[in-house]
Amino acid sequence: MTATIKELNTVDEISEAYPVMKQLRSHLDEKTYIDLVTEAKEKDSYRMYALIDDGDIVAVIGFKPMITLYYGRFIWVCDLVTDAEIRSKGYGEKLLTYVHEWAKDRGCESVALSSGLKRKGAHRFYEDRMDYDRVSYVFKKELE
């Protein structure tokens, strides 16, 4: 694999990743997606990287450094998606491994993420291929 990893910083770069990210975040239209990514980058230290193979974005990861009493200093992976047409070629593994190294270089102790209950294939990827431990449930309450 001769793919390269690139941080997405400009609105144009973020927009180029939308077709792949939409596969994971299907509830977002492009404008809302760009607005949220831009605000998260400005206010919440969110970073977005793309894996580019043969000139095309094939996978995208979004993450942010955090500090909590439970995890200490760590990276929270907010978004990770590989284009559905070309999964199982090592793209997700390459991006997640890149984030592991990024985290280590900055003194982080771990990388954590959540994955939807129905995403059984993703769970197998994280546990079997990437050696992640299942450590908790994530709960959510919609506010009126």
Number of strands: 5
Poorly predicted ranges (pLDDT <50, ≥5 residues)? none
**Structural class of the helices, strands and pairings?**
alpha+beta
Strand order of the largest sheet: 1-2-3-4-5
Task: Describe the sheet with the most strands.
Answer: 5 strands, mixed
Helical run tally:
5
Coarse morphology: globular
**Radius of gyration, in angstroms, nearest whole number:** 15 Å
How helical, in percent, are the residues? Answer: 25-40%
What is the element string, with H for helices and E for strands? EHHHEEEHEH
Head-to-tail CA distance between termini: 47 Å
Average residue-wise pLDDT: 95
Residue fraction in strands: 25-35%
Secondary structure elements and their pairing?
Layout: E1 4-7, H1 11-16, H2 18-21, H3 30-43, E2 47-53, E3 56-68, E4 72-82, H4 91-105, E5 110-113, H5 120-129
Protein name: GNAT family N-acetyltransferase
GO molecular function: acyltransferase activity, transferring groups other than amino-acyl groups
Pfam families: Acetyltransf_1
Summarize the structure.
The chain has helices at 11-16, 18-21, 30-43, 91-105, 120-129; strands spanning 4-7, 47-53, 56-68, 72-82, 110-113. The chain is of the alpha+beta class and 144 residues long.
Describe the structure.
With 144 residues, the chain is α+β, with helices and mostly antiparallel strands. It is built from five helices and five strands, in the order βαααβββαβα. The protein has a five-stranded mixed sheet with strand order 1-2-3-4-5, sandwiched between helices. The radius of gyration is 15 Å and the shape is globular. The protein starts with a strand and ends in a 15-residue tail after the last helix. The relative contact order is 0.14.
